[in-house]
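Entries read sequence, tokenised fold; example below:

***
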Amino acid sequence: MTNTELTIPEGSGISAILSEDQSDLIALISRIEESARGQAALLSPDSKKGRDGLKSIAYKVSQTKAELDRRGKALNEDAQRQITIVNAARKTATEKLDELRDEIKAPALKWEETEKTRVDAIETRLSELSDLDRANSLTTSDELAAIIDQITGIETGDDWDEYRERAISAKAEALAKYGRDLEAAKLREHQEAELARLRAEKAERDRVEQERIAYEQAEAARIAAEKAEAERQERARIEHEQEMARALQQERDRAAREKKEAEMRHEAELKAAQLARERAAQVERDRIEAEKQAAAEARAKREADSKHREKIRTDIADALRTMSGAASPDQIAQALLDGKIPHTVVTL
């Protein structure tokens, strides 16, 4: 099937194929299926050439489908009335040829999917062997021994296929790497255990020494406390005697001070009484003098008022005398209004 699309007839023959009966279309599709399947049967998906051949046959089936569809569209342009019939034929051709395409290509795709699954599974198993970062400087020897046991238990038989040599190499490298890590961990743990033992011994020696020092300090403190208590009691006895002597002297001093204070209060009271009498006498003298001064001032004021009144009277009488003839009441009133009478003011 070098050019599958060339089996489609030209001219009016395509009308018979894409007819309502579809018998010619079915016959054509059957011939294409027979040819495509016949050639596909000669190819194996186990080889790249076979897989490429299967894909090529499927591609040509797609070309035939496209050509049928293209010619069907051309018929629609020439005969619109057959659009429904032709579209149905196109749909049939498309579905059948799509099924044929998928049928031809399926073995190749299935092989590729199976192969990918196989390779992915092997790659996953290989990554478990190639993972050299499952331990660090703090991983214990027991943990490393468990990792080594896990790696040792991984078989590297024929099921690894073409990856077997890589698996064997990765397993050996991992065992060597974790073996070195295990030896380093054992050495580290031995050193840590020895260091812990030495520290424990030193801690015990320090504890014994601290207990000895604490006992000596406690004994020294006891002796010092007893000595301090004896000294305290002696000081208390001396202070008691001194306190008694001070109390006696204070009593004597207090009696003398009270006597002196009483004498001073008596003397102050005498002086205060004398000063009070003198102040009272002075107050009385000041009162008498003030009364005399007030009487004199009152008398002087009365005399001054009398003289002032006499002067005003004289001034008014002189003003009235200057008036011609006997001053009548009207004349006096007019003189008052005119301000001719001194010391008088008429308020309007």
Observations:
- Residues 164-321 form the longest helix (158 residues).
- The chain is about 80% helix and 0% strand.
